[in-house]
Amino acid sequence: MSAQPVAQAAEARGTFGGDMDKGSGPVTLRMIADEVGVNVSTVSRVINSSDKEARRWASSDMIDRIRTVVAARGYQRNPHAASLRTRRSGLVGVLVPRLQDFVLATVYEGIEEAATEQGISTFVTNSLDRPENQASRTELMLSRRVDGLIFGDAHTGDPFLDTLAKRGIKFTLVSRRSGDHISATCDDIMGGRLVAEHLLATGRRDIGILSGRDYASTGNDRTAGVVQACLEAGIRIRPERIVHGGFDAPGGRQATERLLVQGGCPDAIFATNDFAAIGAMGVLRDRGITVPDDVAIVGYNDTPLAAELSIPLTTIHSPMHEMGRAGLNLLLAMLRGEPVESVRLAPELIVRASTAS
């Protein structure tokens, strides 16, 4: 017997806990169909589809009637039957550098929220931004029969994702982009431009950049946006003013110390992550350099801590939660065979005391 008939039979029988008014026993799709006056396949399609897809099979009034009866009778889907029918597990794997990172944790919350709305389960693992971990944990998730993958740890120029695509594995990227792979990110180049325009408007001309890891598109794109906007204003940022390092506070501290050693004290520092900006503030405080009078500081992402610092941090608001939702929805559309395009969400400049004149 093929998987499709087995699934239909299992779904029609059901394994559910509610009771119909007409006697005891589990609530089945057939009972729902008989009460509404349609066939079992129509009920199945309506309850297993989004609103848009359900309208392919039934009118809006009929969809409402079916869902009302389903709710009233306490019907619950049989996930085993659905898996047989679709040949899908209903499971999505997510890789992030570190879940302790506030940005990626918030992105994942968006992924999980959207997945729950669609009846999908997710599980997440950390790669620690190490290619060998990314490869091994990807294979682990594939062994668990995930329908698709979402990567928050893409490395620019790494052929790993190209190899996965050639294998026919469906995936999307969030936070970072890489090559032509489908992604949901903030428009980080525009975010960098907003930073440069703001600093130039406050009279700053010597800008140092804590650019993050050189394999992450986020830091590279944000840096590129600043450099481009400054060039258009006739200002060239010297190479020694761009320093790579970690996106966390210790990374920001180390990068700032190198920045000061390489070229002296700039009149502004842009950190491509709020936590790196906090590390930079610590270095300036220890050296008796005042913010913002001596040096203006700008961060990125608008984490909750940014507004609560003793000197509130000017930053770029990145729509992290929405990014996660978009990444999951892009993956589901891809799994349905629909055409998809990468999403670039708009950044917003949030001005606070760290750049006040």
Distance between the termini: 76 Å
CATH superfamily of the largest domain: Response regulator
- CATH structural fold name of the largest domain: Rossmann fold
Which percent range fits the helix content?
40-55%
- Mean pLDDT across every amino acid position: 88
InterPro entries: HTH_LacI, LacI/GalR-like_sensor, Lambda_DNA-bd_dom_sf, Peripla_BP_I
Keywords: DNA-binding, Transcription, Transcription regulation
Pfam families: Peripla_BP_3 (PF13377)
Region (Disordered): 1-21
How does this model look, in words?
By secondary structure, the protein is of the alpha/beta class. It folds into 3 domains: 3-74, Orthogonal Bundle (434 Repressor (Amino-terminal Domain)); 90-185 and 320-345, 3-Layer(aba) Sandwich (Rossmann fold), CATH 3.40.50.2300; 188-318 and 350-355, Response regulator (Rossmann fold, 3-Layer(aba) Sandwich). The chain contains 14 helices and 12 strands. The strands form 3 sheets. Strands 2-1-3-4-5-11 form a 6-stranded parallel β-sheet, sandwiched between helices. The longest helix has 16 residues, at 102-117. The model is unreliable at 1-23 and 82-86 (pLDDT under 50).
